[in-house]
Amino acid sequence: MKLEEMLMNELDTIRRCLAGDQNGYAELYNDYAGGLYRLCYGLLLHRQDAEDVLQETFVYAFKSLKRYDAQRASFKTWLYTIAVSRCRNMHRRKQFQIFDINQVFDLASPFEEQPESQFAQQNARHVVERALRELSPILREAVVLRYAHGLTYREMAEMLDCPQKTAESRVRLAHEKLRTLLQPNLLEELLVLGHENL
Amino acid sequence: MKTCNLIRKHAFRYLSGEMPPRQRRLFVRHVERCPHCQAELRRQRAVVYELQATLPRVGRPQRDQLARVWGNVQQQLTQPPRQTTRPLLYQSWGAAMMMVVMFMLLLPLVVRGADQLPHFTPAIYLPTAVAVTTERPNAIVLSGPLQQATTPTSTNTPTRWIAVAVAPTMAHMAASTPTPLP
Question: What chain B residue is nearest to A38 in terms of C-alpha separation?
């Protein structure tokens, strides 16, 4: 399906929602809930908090759907902006908590009897998650939006309410920090890569 | 060495495809000749690959999670909007300011105790009375506190209290002992 068609369908769904069609809400939820949950989890690194923020985001978005202006931003950008702002609030509320014991157990559990490739993938994921925890919330936002959601710097600037250059420099800073954090784990990969074409 | 530092600084821009074509050509030309920069670029590329491959998998939701959240969302949407009531105290700035002024007035009582306050006769606490004797109209007396008020005439003289005021009265008037007028 072409991008324009998709956008038209989306606008049509929003119109149906505003007219009181409950199925429209379900469609919007199904389209965006997965991506939004990944975003929230990437920023908060806590399953329950991510669920809470996902819920808050959709409730707020659906209640204020009348205020959505398609001329100003895409529906995705609008939703993501709400979610990022909610994540910031959550982070502010939780900044004095050091760690959650459940989270520790959640991280420990997937290592039980996994096939080797799956184990390697999960291991890599946990290494990256651990590195993400070391980043400041602002740098984490930038790197998650860029790499996990493939947003352009322009979209990022819109969502984070900052100039495009700032978004770029945040990603660069996050990248530099992650490079030092991930370095030991990448040694093997470097050996395999060898000399590549530039 | 200076070029190498620049390369290290700009490697990220090269990898993310944000470098203009001319800079890109110069960049590649240098890296082809410099083993240090080749190694640096390889390291940075590995980080980018790692992030691009792994980050989209971080936090993938499970179906039951999304279904549970959807249930909660629906429930919240069907609930009637809650009416938020603000506590009476905070309904206006005026009320809040009044509370602050009251607090400041009462602060000495709390800090030092009422009995340790310096003794003074606040006019507003002293009810005053004006006594008029029917037999001696000249004997109008400004009395002190009500219980101390006495009339200048004999006890048999009928005295009629015509006013008892608790309005602010000057302290010296209120505290003065009744003196018969000539």
Answer: B59
* SS3 at position B128: strand
Question: How far apart, in whole angstroms, are the C-alpha atoms of residue A169 and residue A140?
Answer: 13
- The answer to whether the CB atoms of A178 and B76 lie below 8 A apart is no
Model pTM? 0.63
* Phi, psi for residue B129 in degrees, rounded to 5: -135, 145
Answer whether residue A194 shows pLDDT above 60: no
Residues 43-82 of A with CB under 8 A from B: 45, 47, 50-51, 54-55, 58-59, 62-63
Q: Write the residue in B38, B47, B72 that is nearest to A179 by C-beta.
A: B47
Amino acid at B7: I
Q: Do A144 and B55 touch (CB under 8 A)?
A: yes
Q: Please compute Rg for chain A using Cα positions.
A: 19
Paired tokens of B103 = 């607090």
Rounded distance between C-alpha atoms, residue B167 and residue B124, angstroms: 6
Q: What is the pLDDT of residues B127-180, one digit of tens each?
A: 455 544 445 545 445 444 444 444 444 445 454 544 444 444 444 444 445 555
Record: contact B12-A195, CB cut-off 8 A? no
List, in order, residues 6 or more apart from B89 with CB less than 8 Å away.
Answer: B95, B96, B99
Query: Which long-range contacts link A192-197 to residues 24+ away (Cβ below 8 Å)?
Result: A193/B42, A193/B45, A193/B46, A195/B38, A196/B42, A196/B45
| Residue range B39-97, pLDDT digits in tens | 888 888 888 888 888 888 888 898 889 999 999 999 988 877 666 555 555 567 888 88
Residue among A27, A29, A65, A175 with most chain B CBs within 10 A, to mutate = A175
Place of tokens 């989306």: A10
The whole-number average pLDDT for the span A161-179 is: 90
Determine what percent of chain A is predicted with pLDDT higher than 90. Answer: 46
**B83 CA to chain A: closest CA distance, Å?**
16
The pLDDT score that the predictor gives to residue A52 is 94
